[in-house]
Amino acid sequence: MFSVKNRTIIVTGASGVIGFAISEALAKKGARIIALGRNKEKLNKSFEQLASFGTEHLQMVCDVLDVHSLQEVAQHLDKKKITIDALINVAGGAAPGASARSEFLFAETPLEDSFFGLDLNDFRYTTDLNFLGSVYPIKIFGESMAKQKSGNIINISSMGAIQPLSKSPAYSAGKAAITNFTQWLAVHLSKSNIRVNAIAPGFILTEQNRFLLFDEKSGNLTPRGQRILSHTPQGKLGDPDDLVSTVFWLLSEKSSFITGITVPVDGGFSAYNGI
């Protein structure tokens, strides 16, 4: 019902925890993965594991914010006459200076700990990575989908797009933008047999957020981690593999009448207001 066998799927951020989990699951079921990532060492390690599920996979070092880099990948695929069936935009993240140290600005709060202390370069990089980091790959790789009049695009949004995360204005704004863009693009491409949807993960434990959720010395949840669990009805953090079934569903022909939606995979976080 949800077969991806022999389908060619580009995954950006493929060397990250979530990107690799998705790539591995699809490869195990017979998909051909074009794994893109900017860290060559991490990408090589991920690709070694993917190679055990077939020899047709490709890996290419690529920065999603570098249009020239994306174009080189597209040209390489075109030369090899590789048809792209789907694109999954996983690449994202946040620069340290784009997050506020304080949740609220009180009279006694130092301005450098508030929004006014944010590093504007980090702020712009974070919003660009989480918004344009999906827009650019769609523009470069989606063009071939438009020409062949078929394709499937899945973006990775966030709970921050639905409810802005305290201390993370740049990340939340970037993800909100990609959620909105997903809706716009789904309508725009609806006559070309290209579907566009997004997944909004809840709090998934990754390398990037582990230090925010767990104390490195004790291994116990940090106060922020405890608050997250208390606002997640299922009372647990998500695992990257929790996203896999939704990816298979959105890629399948069984969801052919679904486009322009963002699916929360969040343990109930977005449905709970804490009251």
Distance between the termini: 40 Å
Strand order of the largest sheet: 3-2-1-4-5-6-7
What percentage of the residues does DSSP assign to strands (E)? 5-15%
What's the overall average pLDDT, rounded? 95
Radius of gyration over C-alpha positions, nearest whole angstrom: 19 Å
Query: Fraction of residues in helices?
Result: 25-40%
Largest sheet: 7 strands, parallel
The CATH topology corresponds to Rossmann fold
Question: Number of DSSP helices?
Answer: 9
How does this structure look, described?
Helix 3 packs parallel to helix 4 and helix 4 packs parallel to helix 6 (169-188). This protein has helices spanning 17-28, 40-50, 67-79, 120-148, 159-162, 169-188, 210-213, 223-230, 244-251, and strands spanning 8-12, 32-37, 58-61, 86-89, 151-156, 194-201, 262-265. Helix 1 (17-28) links the parallel strand 1 and strand 2 (32-37). It has a single domain, classed as 3-Layer(aba) Sandwich (Rossmann fold). It is 40% helix and 13% strand. It is of the alpha/beta class. It has a 7-stranded parallel sheet, with helices on both faces.
